[in-house]
Amino acid sequence: MAIKEIVVAKYKEDTSWLDSINTFDKKTIYNKHDKNAENYLENVGREGHTYLYHIIKNYDNLADYTLFCQGDPVFHYHS
């Protein structure tokens, strides 16, 4: 069975919306605000920096399918 992962680039957004998503085998949140948080990254390069960091760091063990998104993807959705 294919492994699915969601990778989130977070600054100050509320990512509690991830709690209700059960379609991923793994959830990775990179926090670019709280230096004491798990998976802290320096706030440089916007979300592209975060996604590239994840790919390079996990190159030999990437999930079969990876979804990359911002901490609040709904904010950027315009209908």
Could you describe the 3D structure shown?
15% of the residues lie in helices and 24% in strands. By secondary structure, the chain is of the alpha/beta class. The chain has a three-stranded parallel sheet, covered by helices on one side. The mean pLDDT is 93.
**Adjacency order of strands in the biggest sheet:** 2-1-3
The number of helical segments is: 1
> Uncertain runs with pLDDT below 50, 5 residues or more?
none
Helix-strand pattern, N to C? EEHE
- Percent strand: 15-25%
Into which percent range does the helicity of residues fall?
10-25%
* Strands, count: 3
Compute the CA-based radius of gyration.
Answer: 13 Å
Find the structural class using helix and strand composition: alpha/beta
Mean of residue pLDDT? 93
Summarize this structure as a short list of keywords or feature phrases.
79 residues; alpha/beta; 3-stranded parallel beta sheet; 1 helix; 3 strands; globular
